Amino acid sequence: MNDTDERPVPKPHPPGLFGRMRGYFLTGLIVVAPVSLTAYFIWAGVGIIDNWVLPLVPRAYHPSNYLGVDIRGFGLIIFLVFTIFVGWMTRGLIGRTLVSWGERIVDRMPIVRSIYSGLKQIAETVFSQTEAKFERACLLEYPRPGIWVIAFVSTRARGEIAEKVPRDDEVISIFLPTTPNPTSGFLLFLPRREVILLDMSVEEAAKLVISAGLVYPQRQPDGTVIARPAA
Q: What pTM was computed for the model?
């Protein structure tokens, strides 16, 4: 055995002042950045709604005439009250009649009809009060064998899709999201045997997709799951 093999391994030097300050800064940034960005987006969103709504309100009713200053969020309050009123009217007989009459007029406009129907479908999907949601997170091989991706089980294929897809197993619809924007992706129809269901929840899998693989859910001894950055 050489003398060099018996030498003790030198202990790492503790970080200096600059290293500690850098660590403190990064730790603080992890806490401050999400809070600051969330507050900024809320503030900016309120401002956008105000700029859209306030020009439609007569100048005599603006808060600046009574308080001397503009109140941020006044347009948002008007928008919320107006939207609630429209929803209340729409649930009544008169409101439903007016909506049907307006949609019949829109159906006679070729270009406007396509835009309106598309926006209506998007709004009904996003703001629907039903409990429709992804069933499970899963793994599948895509775009070729040997490459695994995270996807979400939507539902069992029905109707013409289930009838015409060649199969010897149940066909399920899978949504394959993109990273880091999971709102876009691909709709796939696969036999159930080609899909590996995961124990992690849909929310945990979504965090993994959004973080581009940097945040993995880790199970604790009591069965709870926490999200930790990947080592």
A: 0.51
